[in-house]
Amino acid sequence: MRILLLGEYSNLHNSLATALRALGHEVRLVSDGDDWKSYKQDVCLRRRSTSKWDTLRYLIALNKEMRHWRGYDVVQLINPVHFVDLKAERGIRIYDFLKKHNRKVFLGAFGDDYYYIHNSYVDRPLRYCDFYTPTHEVTHAWNQSNIDNWLHNPGMVRSCQHIAQTCDGIIAALYEYYVAYTSSEWSKKTCFIPLPIATAPSPDLASSPLSLSPNKIRFFIGIQRLRTQLKGTDILLRVARELEERYPTRMEVVTAENLPFDEYLKQMASCDILLDQIYSYTPSMNALQAMAMGLVAVSGGEEEQYELLGEQELRPIVNILPDADDIRTKLEDLILHPERIPLLKAQGIAYVRRHHDAKQIAQQYLSTWGKGE
Question: Which of 40, 36, 38 is nearest to 27 (CA)?
């Protein structure tokens, strides 16, 4: 197949592209590297700012690149708006161009969009999510921005609805996104495919040992400077620091702030436990990458996501609720019972290999893309 992947979230498209090439397919990945994370791509399209000159430079580069956006068997968009860095109204015209000049176009349900935000914020089928917990509403600037953009911006709403209606299929990568789209009018064209992770470590980045770090348990947390509240990183870090003061000889907290991906992985590899996010039912690319490297993931690991995968045996994720007391109890249990950690590490590696191996996931994409032919 000839495949065009547009946009990037958390290394999803890069991991998929690498696996597809290993299977003999031709892939062109175009993205901005997901901003400062600097994920790899074949063509970098990055709009440096919204100034007149940076916008003009971006439009010239985009127009030049679009000459190559014809004749693909499959085009996949990372998001119904953010596959290019333009206002949604312009993005619709680019989507229509892609639909006209390529065999199939698929939409990725991989992040925030109209259907996910509407399902989470308005319909509320889950026990908790980014916008609410069993005890309170989650209110901060990022959430309000998401509500304003995805529910009340006519261009963004129209883009999501138009692409969902006319694309050849919708692929959800997390339980929450799958629930959102299967609860919509596009249920029949939606399928679930797990996130792709390269399970073999790079030569210069060996998997963490299943034994513990000497002297202290090392807890690792990545901090996105402007987005700490979005995933609950602020709460995770606060609780971890409290425990570090209480158990200074047993554990330490290692932080990484706004690092490029390769450097981020090197820091993470020296640790035992990843503190990921608190509002999700499912582990993210970040958590799965950590598990593949032999870390324990403290993240979302609800039974619903295990059921969606058909997993009846492994339970490697330390499932935390969006509640400081619950987080504190579960982290303290790991500190006081370190003998649990090697088993969780081993289960995490087995879990990622069983459900998220990038080559197996690539085969699932190829099967989905090829249906009806």
Answer: 40
Give me the number of domains the chain comprises.
2
| Range 150-158, long-range pairs (CB < 8 A, 24+ positions) | 150/112, 150/113, 150/114, 150/116, 150/117, 150/118, 151/114, 151/117, 151/118, 151/121, 151/122, 153/88, 155/87, 155/88, 155/89, 155/92, 156/81, 156/88, 156/114, 157/114, 158/88, 158/89, 158/92
What pLDDT does residue 38 have? 87
Average pLDDT value for residue range 312-334: 97
Q: Which domain holds residue 289?
A: 217-355
Predicted confidence at residue 211, as pLDDT, reads 62
Once rounded to an integer, what is the mean pLDDT over residues 176-203? 90
Nearest to 273 by CA among 219, 350, 316: 219
Residues 68 and 138 in one domain: yes
228 to each of 222, 252, 341, how far by Cα in Å?
9, 20, 26
Does 20 share its domain with 167? yes
With pLDDT > 70 as the criterion, what percentage of the chain qualifies? 95
In one letter, which amino acid is 139? T
Residue recorded with tokens 């040992």? 209
User: Is the pTM higher than 0.90?
Assistant: yes
pLDDT of residue 225 exceeding 80, the answer is: no
Whether residue 175 is found in the same domain as residue 282: no
Whether pLDDT at 205 is above 60: no
For 31, the enclosing helix (H) or strand (E) is: strand 26-31
Residue-wise pLDDT tens digits, 66-100? 999 999 999 999 999 999 999 999 999 999 999 99
CATH number at residue 121: 3.40.50.2000
Whether residues 117 and 51 fall in one domain: yes
Q: Which pair of tokens denotes residue 335? A: 């500190």
Q: Flag whether 179 is in a domain.
A: yes
**SS3 label, residue 28:** strand
In a domain, 201, yes or no: no
Strand arrangement of the beta sheet that strand 273-275 belongs to: 251-257, 217-223, 273-275, 296-299, 318-319
**DSSP of 214-229, one letter per residue?**
SSSEEEEEEE-TT-TT
Residue 210: the pLDDT is 61
Backbone dihedral region for residue 128 (phi beyond 0: left; psi -120 to 50: alpha; all else: beta): beta
